[in-house]
Amino acid sequence: MNRRTAILIIGFALTLFVSAVNPATASTLPERVKVAYVAIMNFAPLYVAIGRDFMKEQNIEVEMQKVASGTEAMAFLAQGTLDAGGVGITAATFNAFNKGFDLRIVASAALQPQKGGPTILIVRKDLKDSGRIKSISDLKNMKVAIAGGPGTTGAYFVAKALKEVSLTIKDIEIVNLANPDMQLALEKAAVDAALVGPPYSDQIIAGGKGVLLAEDMAPGAMTTVFMYSGKFMKERPEVARRFMIALVKGSRAMQGDRYLDQANLMSYLKYVTSTEGAIRKGKPQVYDPDLKVYIDSIKNMEEIFRWAGWTNYTTTIPQEKMAAPSFCEQAVKVLGPFKP
To answer: How do beta strands 60-66 and 31-37 pair?
Structure first.
């Protein structure tokens, strides 16, 4: 082998090595990934992964599509017209899995805090003061306001709390009310209790017509997730893996005090209708640094929705029809253990 040939071989080997380490050098054209999102902070790891160029590092160009709800996103994912999406888990999620829709949960999004969760159950002050309602077990035959009504994530919190005190969802009357309307409904005694989050929960308690009845009804629950379409996983598995690496890097870049890094704030504000002041003042969301898929949480939600009669089936759904945790697990292997 002459010197020129040896140099060419070494150069070719170096090119292969660099391409493996940095996928962006392997192709001049980035892979486009179409992603659905609801404009809330639950899906902030995605915003940071884009805003801080973690997706670009993986040679991925994200096409964001804003949707009104996770249910809308699931329809697009099942059809394969979108590749990934941020979704809140509802009864409709499990109905879709049961019908064989081709989509899977691949990562967690925002998690419920272990303590001090934002969504609380408020009861009318006059009912609490009179002793008529002292605890959740006293909600029997009462009207409870839940945004979105039966089968929603909020309804899961209430149903889980009722089940733990040996009541069923049929023991209460669910009233579908938007969060902003709950204060007036309590003041007018149109409802007896309400499941509500900030800032509306703070306003109700400050107004003096409602008081805290219960909080932290599902500590640590994984109620919002990232999903992949079956088409994306099957036809572009390598892109799906690289997308997850960027997503996990986004979550890791938000942990602890880094949550309010200026680069992160700019990323949030590009997709969420809020202000920097409001985000700084608000309580930070909780995100797993590895975006771990909490299988037990999925199973518990599925069980509660089925128990409440909000699903159109009665038998347990196999885990493999609901989740594909291998993508975030592989991302963690590539990135290594998280270092706070």
So the answer is: parallel
